[in-house]
Amino acid sequence: MSGRISDSTVRRLSLYLRMLRDLERAGVEFVSSSQLAEPSGATSAQVRKDLSHFGSFGKRGRGYSVDGLVRALEEILGLSRSWRLALVGVGKIGSALLGYGGLAARGFDVVAAFDVDEAKIGTRAHGLRIRPMRELRPAIAECGAEIGVVATPTEVAAEVAAELERAGVGAILNFAPIELSEVNGVPIRTVDIVLELEGLSYLMSEAGRRTGSDG
Amino acid sequence: MSGRISDSTVRRLSLYLRMLRDLERAGVEFVSSSQLAEPSGATSAQVRKDLSHFGSFGKRGRGYSVDGLVRALEEILGLSRSWRLALVGVGKIGSALLGYGGLAARGFDVVAAFDVDEAKIGTRAHGLRIRPMRELRPAIAECGAEIGVVATPTEVAAEVAAELERAGVGAILNFAPIELSEVNGVPIRTVDIVLELEGLSYLMSEAGRRTGSDG
DNA sequence: CCGCCCTTGTGAAAGGTTTCACAAACCAAG
DNA sequence: CTTGGTTTGTGAAACCTTTCACAAGGGCGG
Description:
The structure is a homodimer of 215-residue chains.
Chain A (H helix, E strand, L loop, with lengths): L6 H19 L4 E2 L1 H5 L6 H9 L5 E2 L3 E3 H12 L5 E6 L3 H8 L1 H5 L2 E8 L8 E2 L2 E5 L3 H8 L3 E4 L3 H14 L3 E4 L13 E3 L2 H22 L1
Parallel strand pairs in A: 4-5, 4-8, 5-7, 8-9, 9-10
Antiparallel strand pairs in A: 1-3, 2-3, 6-7
The structure holds a DNA duplex (30 and 30 nucleotides).
């Protein structure tokens, strides 16, 4: 067991956990790998393999205890605690994030927000005072935010990410359409909507080319 | 050449195209696979392999013509035209999308917006009239939107996706934290922010466990 | 035209992920 | 206790993606 775990495995673990929480709320006690597989589009073997990287959680002939597996996955994914986010850039996307209750509900609290726009600085957005960029480092040190969120224009995204890393965050979530490179082992995930749309564009064009030429 | 192209290849092609457009704007005429590889974190061999699935675009000893490769990739990815999006759900995320100029700038125009909230219906958001759900099918037929965007609460996301599919869209972009299953060959991409954050949470916890126990 | 240097395009090798298939284990009923 | 039905955990096989390494081709200076 153990070793290096792939992104796709971790991704699926999150999906399993979601379903398990639903089952827990519904009062279900045991669940099988095939039931667990369904909503994430995985196979039962994949569920078992994914879990087996971390230990042995099931009972043969019976399945997995819902409660037990919820706790185990929360522990594995680091979700038995909550995380603090520092948001840089309170524009369209930044504001949407601040107003999105789904984050806090799942243990991700935005505890600080920064912007360069003098008109925004000092005002409050969803109960949070917007601070100038110059306060980024001391504020993050003070509030202990672990995750930095980059919601700035593309041009400054790399610079902001570097500044967040120097301020001591342990991970970065980036919304700018640019591939930021990990430094000092600080992992970065990029949410790139245009990239997703272009992926769909490819698939639709491809479908058109196929039906168009082959009949 | 050709065959089934992986998502990761298509993803990289988009990144190459981005860089190529920057180079084109800067007046550069030729580019090598290694230069092209750098910003997307790929290797030069990967760039060449990715492109080789679609044809032979380079000149040995010289590299790729920037203009030529821009046109070729636009053609491959279906980006030599523009696409029309129909947005369902004008809440936090939906509004942010409507206000985000980056979409239209890259050829993705939101041409229709729908919501269930009586208070929103009939009002305008960023120049677009918000329509009731009951108009979804005729409106999409009329305006010819190819891509449906689901920005609704999780509970209704699956139903909305099915309705979009019936209305005739060719692809769906989903922002609800739920794995929607493709039906009738209509591809679906999900942008799931919580999933990304949980992935970062895993990596940070993992890092902590390593340094915590091994020294 | 020749020779040198450079870069592509591509089989083959390596590396990684998913699926298969089955022994081992567990529960329940008799 | 034994038998039968069920489901896990896991090596092995199949599949897919990335990297390697090099022959083939192109440009340029002389």
